[in-house]
Design a protein that fits this description.
The protein is an alpha/beta fold. The protein has five helices and seven strands, in the order E-E-H-E-E-H-E-H-E-H-E-H.
Length: 199
């Protein structure tokens, strides 16, 4: 799936500010500082489309990006960058970390096809386990991605992936926004989410 065009659409703090739901959407979720913005930029082939910061919790809004891609149908979709959880404490209500804004988006957005869960390959925590369970309970698709795979020595990467798969009980794709490793596999999994009907 090759990106032809990607553009920022809007930021939102409440459902009334979400754009019209006329395209299928893929949400990107993960702990603060897990590398969501870096991965989004790498997937979309843009260096600065999603704002990258070394400060955990910089993404405080729900950010929507329109993506046009070349496939057999010339499909377009929306990528949705959700605020990070954990360190930034931007959400506490649902599943201990998710606030009303995120809850309402994930629960009520009819065009949402699935969630890309990002986890640092060097650590997985209870929050990720909770989110996997939460997504499955709501009938959404899930792609689990281990970010920052380049931070591990090459000989330890496969074991790092296996450890996360055992923790989350789902397949995990290892990716690096720095080297591009795993991007083709991530795109393939995302495309499958886009083709998946909402239950």
């Amino acid at each position: 799936m090759k990106t032809l065009k990607a553009e920022f659409v809007t930021s939102a703090t409440e459902p009334s500010q979400f754009p019209p739901g006329n395209l299928p959407e893929i949400a990107f979720a993960g702990r603060s500082n897990v590398g969501k913005s870096s991965l989004l930029n790498a997937l979309l082939g843009h260096k600065n489309l999603a704002r990258v910061s070394r400060t955990p919790g910089r993404t405080r809004l729900v950010n929507f990006f329109r993506v046009a891609a070349s496939d057999k149908k010339g499909a377009a979709c929306m990528f949705v960058d959700l605020p990070g959880y954990g360190y930034a404490k931007v959400a506490k209500a649902v599943q201990e970390q998710w606030g009303p804004m995120i809850e309402s988006y994930l629960s009520a957005r009819s065009v949402l096809r699935g969630v890309v869960l990002l986890t640092d390959v060097r650590r997985g925590e209870q929050d990720e386990i909770n989110l996997v369970r939460w997504v499955h309970e709501r009938g959404l698709g899930l792609v689990a991605v281990a970010t920052k795979i380049d931070k591990l020595p090459r000989g330890q990467r496969a074991q790092g992936i296996r450890d996360l798969e055992a923790l989350l009980a789902v397949p995990v794709i290892g990716c690096s926004a720095e080297t591009g490793e795993g991007m083709d596999a991530a795109w393939k999994a995302i495309r499958e989410l886009l083709l998946r009907p909402r239950v």
